[in-house]
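Much of what follows relies on a compact textual record of a protein's fold. A record is reproduced here so that you can trace the correspondence yourselves:
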Amino acid sequence: MRISALPVFLKLPRRGGSRHPALRRRAYLQTGEAGKMKTIVVVSKDIIVNGIIERRLKGTYQVVVFGTMPSALDYIYNAMPNLIVMNLTDGEKEGAAILNALKSDPMFQQLPVLAVLDDPFDASVWDRWLVEDYIRRGDLDTDLAARVCLSILRSERIVEINPLTRLPGNISINKEIQERIDSRREFAFGYADLDFFKPFNDRYGFSRGDEAIKMTARIILGVIKSKQPQGSFVGHIGGDDFVFIIDQAFAEEAAKDIVRVFDSLITGLYDPADLKQGFIQSFDRRGKASQFPVMGISIGITESRRRAFTHFGEIAEIAAEMKKFAKQHQGSCYMIDKRQMA
């Protein structure tokens, strides 16, 4: 179970012996958990606009600049930034179309986008852009920092986004499953969690435990989106539990890749001495000192075509059963329900 990091406040001027609450909130918002900077993706070809944005946000946020939306997609899929700032004064119709496609994906519906617009701009096209806020180019120097802060704050008030991984939570997960069941769409549902995560978290602390969770989220998201860029879904139930939805034709291949990539990367989170001896010393759930191997990932998969599901809970239960079966095997493993029900 994940332990939330304590807020890390920046050093701000004191007034009357204590910091103003709004300043404390803004400092926490900019740094995020464990003092790490929030990430902002800027999509703009305009070097003047880019220069203003970097000057105003540098040192407060991690700013990553791309000239076009296609070049930014891989980073967005893998890093899940806190905000996209997109320069729509460039007149790049392809970029706007890709942005709309991205925002139409359930995975990224709640990723906020701040549009940079000309002054004046044509308000008649506003409903064609899937953005949450805008700023006029002429106001970048004076208002950008406040608009960025407000855009991120609004998105963080939506509790459906997991604050650590930026993935959709239980409400979105249940909705995605039920909509597919109701529309009789065939799909595969995967349920994954980590083996021996608790002793790892106890041994190394919640900060490294959070890194393991974020790494797992990036692996699953990256694999699923590489197999099926459109129409797939990845969610974070909480803790070390994740789910994914993908077309049945890609399910087993995706599970194999998740296992392979996870096993190749997880050892990087262990101390060399622990890797050398092949285990860590920690405590089990009853508080008994024990030895635990390197973490693995277990995945249970079921397919909608094999059963007449009517409720999201039914398919989740079968996937959980398969995951439990996978956990009985040593090391990372996936199991797919092949039982055919009338």
